[in-house]
């Protein structure tokens, strides 16, 4: 959904809410016991709840089918899902461009951090398809970089591309390629020196 469409939707929602408020005021002129204003008040209470549920419905949700059984990897994946959802909320509610950038930076930085940790685990365990998996990671980073470059020419379109790409790529990768290395990862934690900088991400 483009930024223009989101803006129009928010404007229309605001107009509907204002119109309903006017109906409530006029309804009370019919008398405090008249059901019309009370029905409208209930509708006004329900609108934000429905709006919130519709947005959350578009968010990524962690499912047990995504689990690798490797705590470090699963925790990273859960954090990535949280950050992508945070980025979606930033774009959905049309908050400041700075906040959208900040949310996107968090996703990209944590994705790189996760890839580094995942690749370290694969190296330690001598995963035979390491290079192919690492190439997938690099392609993903390259694609995001491309969309971020697009952002300079068409902000709304590029952000929508990034969000869609992140959501679809992450789920496909977690349920596909990441499951392939699980049988090979007998060592499932990283040495302390390889965990340095974790608190800075």
Structure described in brief:
With 201 residues, this protein is mainly α. The protein is 73% helix and 0% strand.
CATH architecture of the largest domain: Up-down Bundle
CATH superfamily of the largest domain: Hemerythrin-like
User: How many domain units?
Assistant: 2
Which outline best applies?
Answer: elongated
Give the class from helix and strand content and strand pairing. Answer: mainly alpha
Average residue pLDDT: 83
Largest sheet: none
What is the CA–CA distance across the termini?
Answer: 30 Å
Number of β-strand runs:
0
Rg computed from alpha carbons, rounded to a whole number of angstroms: 23 Å
Please provide the ordered H/E string of secondary-structure elements.
HHHHHHH
Classify the beta-strand content into a percent band: under 5%
Q: What's the helix count?
A: 7
- What is the class of the largest domain in the CATH system? Mainly Alpha
Helix content: over 70%
Which features does this protein show?
201 residues; Four Helix Bundle (Hemerythrin (Met), subunit A); 73% helix; single chain; mainly alpha
Describe the protein in words.
This protein is mainly alpha-helical and 201 residues long. The chain has 2 domains: 3-56; 62-200, Four Helix Bundle (Hemerythrin (Met), subunit A) (Up-down Bundle), CATH 1.20.120. It has 7 helices and no strands. Helix 3 packs antiparallel against helix 6 (155-175). The chain is elongated. The mean pLDDT is 83.
């Amino acid at each position: 959904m483009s930024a223009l469409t989101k803006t129009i939707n928010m404007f229309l929602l605001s107009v509907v809410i204002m119109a309903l408020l006017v109906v409530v005021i006029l309804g009370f002129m019919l008398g405090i016991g008249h059901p019309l204003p009370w029905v409208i008040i209930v509708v006004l209470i329900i609108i934000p709840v429905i709006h919130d549920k519709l947005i959350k419905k578009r968010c990524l949700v962690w499912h047990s089918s995504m689990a690798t059984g490797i705590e470090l990897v699963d925790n990273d994946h859960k954090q990535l899902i949280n950050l992508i959802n945070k980025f979606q909320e930033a774009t959905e509610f049309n908050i400041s461009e700075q906040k959208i950038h900040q949310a996107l930076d968090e996703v990209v930085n944590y994705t790189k951090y996760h890839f580094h940790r995942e690749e370290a685990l694969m190296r330690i365990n001598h995963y035979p398809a390491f290079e192919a998996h690492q190439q997938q990671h690099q392609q993903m980073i390259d694609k995001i970089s491309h969309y971020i470059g697009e952002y300079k020419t068409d902000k709304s379109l590029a952000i929508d591309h990034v969000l869609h790409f992140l959501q679809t790529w992450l789920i496909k990768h977690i349920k596909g390629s990441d499951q392939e290395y699980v049988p090979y990862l007998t060592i499932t934690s990283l040495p302390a020196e390889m965990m340095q900088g974790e608190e800075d991400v």
